[in-house]
Specification:
four-stranded antiparallel beta sheet, 4 helices, 30 strands
């Protein structure tokens, strides 16, 4: 088996363990920070094996971890104490959903899970005890859901959720205590926000067209825009902050901008290995991130020094392909059966991209349908 580097878009830390749903394909993993061991805990049932991006956000809920469906079709809830996993199927949300279910992120508030759409322009509340779904917000505006993303990443403080709208200059402020929402415009009319973080009285927003960030003071309602001067602007970027600095990290171009909060001085650096940044978070004047291609972990200090943490999350040695596929039957993507295990089109496309369109499939072992698909 090819031991892929494992990456993720969200994780939770419990004791010395980091729990995450892999971006690469279907799997819940636990990584121990002390002995650097990794364990494949469970395969999510009723979900595609080789579907990338099953879950974009995971949340803590009592002794359990809640997995918010992005390309998955169900909310999964895993109890870390007894090892039981239960699932809540997402009901039909109507014509405004272009792919099931297509949620970008979620927040647990008391016994409720609030799920924010990605290309779906709505917010759904799920009762984690009963499994009941209720739509609490759906935008009046209609966009091309096959092209445009509607909402972006969210920030949370107390009972308020701050949600950027990617296709217009607006932020949706959701009061989870009363299930009420209001929209607010910030900055220039041309700004379109994809990521947001809250730092005390300040909210930082990334403009997806320029990768510049806007600082909005919620107390006096003032704002200012800071140019990051990326050579490849608009490539999507993370924003993180510490007590003294703000970091803007491009997802794809390898560019990083570090801003001193006190002086406003900016330092731009370039990551020579040009990673695909899947996940980033700040601790003690450093930003840690995971390379989505290799599974390697790095951090950047406030002077722009990049350190390899010598942490690489890869599929455990004791996992065999046949074990992963045990009991799995393809459903959504018309899986076909090869010589030893089932392959889906998504799996073959993934391998074709990783290997520069060189793939192990041939006409004798995967069938005419897949062969013709990959060789038009």
């Amino acid at each position: 088996m090819n031991r892929y580097g494992l990456s993720f878009n969200s994780c939770v830390k419990l004791g010395d363990d980091i729990w995450f749903s892999a971006t690469n394909y279907n799997g819940l993993y636990r990584y121990n920070l002390k002995d650097t061991s990794i364990e494949r805990v469970v395969t999510f049932p009723n979900e595609e094996m080789w579907q990338m991006g099953l879950h974009n956000t995971i949340c803590l809920y009592h002794d359990s971890i809640v997995f918010v469906p992005h390309w998955a079709e169900r909310v999964s809830i895993y109890n870390t104490k007894n090892g039981l996993l239960r699932q809540i199927e997402v009901p039909d949300l109507g014509s405004r959903v272009c792919s099931a279910p297509d949620f970008l992120c979620g927040v647990v508030y008391h016994e409720m899970l609030y799920m924010v759409g990605y290309k779906y322009s709505g917010i759904v509340k799920v009762d984690l005890k009963t499994g009941e779904f209720r739509t609490i917000y759906e935008a009046d505006e209609w966009i091309n859901i096959f092209v445009e993303e509607y909402f972006g990443e969210v920030a949370v403080e107390d009972n308020y959720m701050y949600i950027p709208c990617q296709f217009q200059n607006s932020i949706l402020i959701l009061d989870m205590k009363h299930d009420t929402a209001e929209k607010k415009s910030i900055g220039k009319d041309s700004n379109r926000y994809c990521r947001i973080v809250k730092d005390g009285k300040n909210v930082y927003l990334i403009d997806k067209n320029t990768s510049n960030f806007i600082t909005w003071n919620v107390d006096d309602d003032s704002w200012r825009e800071t140019e990051v001067q990326f050579k490849n602007p608009g490539t999507n970027a993370y924003i993180n902050y510490s007590k003294e600095h703000i970091w803007v990290i491009s997802v794809l171009s390898g560019e990083v901008c570090i801003i001193d909060k006190g002086t406003g001085k900016r330092r731009n650096i370039f990551l020579n290995n040009k990673p695909v940044v899947e996940y980033a978070f700040s601790r003690s004047e450093r930003v840690y991130f995971v390379d989505g291609y290799t599974g390697n972990w790095y951090f950047i200090d406030n002077q722009g020094v990049i350190i390899d943490l010598n942490i690489k999350m890869i599929e455990p040695d004791n996992i065999r392909m046949e074990d992963i596929w045990q009991g799995f039957s393809p459903s959504r993507f018309d899986g076909v059966v090869g010589e030893r295990s089932p392959y889906t089109l998504q799996y073959l496309i993934f391998h074709a991209r990783e290997k520069g369109m060189e793939t192990e499939c041939n006409k004798s072992n995967v069938g005419n349908t897949v062969w013709n698909f990959l060789n038009p």
